[in-house]
């Protein structure tokens, strides 16, 4: 992440001042600074160390449209259209210099053309232009009101049809007990069994997450007791076989329905960490998981969203799903959960399941706090509902994706 003082120093070299109007963004793996000024948009390409490699000014006269809209994921999104290019990028919300975009976000979401943007950047308008802009603003306001009503109606219908209970976890710092719900740390190995290993390399596996079902609100078809352990490999893909998500060669899942009242020392395994250990979290990371039961509505990136929409929405409402403003509004209605059991999954790319395979979300862990899946990704584990009812965890799909 860029350092704010470093940004100021770099901009000063190019005679640009930092006035809370500089926005760090990234697109296609490259990072830039975008500065908004009266003359136009200053674009600075950055090196990996956040020093400026080169810069250019895009005059407002060359800007056909500038759109900023909220994303379903972690970041806002900005699109700039000119006669020669179409730039689409993600806004890095966690970096310095974003107060300008936050203050102007609502204005920019609803203004498509530069001649309607000048007041947002302090420009002047003629009286006639102001009247025209006022009429256009009233029309836009009415369109937004209508869109809001449509979005709320679609969301209400989808909730009535797809509402599903799930347990969301808040990650709390501090030590967790051997059998507690947690991320990372030591794990229980039954007496007479050995540490869990990557069956291809022989390297030991590391505890990603543990869920004690007796400690969380009960969900239909999920266990009411016992401990589920998910362990992964220390390697680039964290043990995931993207060609066969069911392959548990480089990871594994264990479920122990009954637990001893107290584990002997020999039954507690603390994996060894080395310089080349590569996991989504650091060695010192262990979080307790604090559960809350929530009812969740199916999001539209779920593979079953469109079949569900065909069933519960009439033809008029289904037609609105082709409207970008309606879909953006639906994005804003959904809440993103960092860690959960049950409910509906979240993806940075796409759902790996088929609509007719009947698999449901067993566990999900997002990039949160000190946990990072690639470039701000998320990991999902899916299981067939009948297998879950039978407590059969031998055929679980493991997948993770990132930006």
From TrEMBL:
> What is the protein name stated in its UniProt record?
DUF1963 domain-containing protein
- Positions the record marks as coiled coil are none
Q: Which Gene3D superfamilies match?
A: YwqG-like
Pfam assignment, any one: DUF1963
**PANTHER family in UniProt:** SLL5081 PROTEIN
Entries under InterPro entries matching the protein: DUF1963, YwqG-like_sf
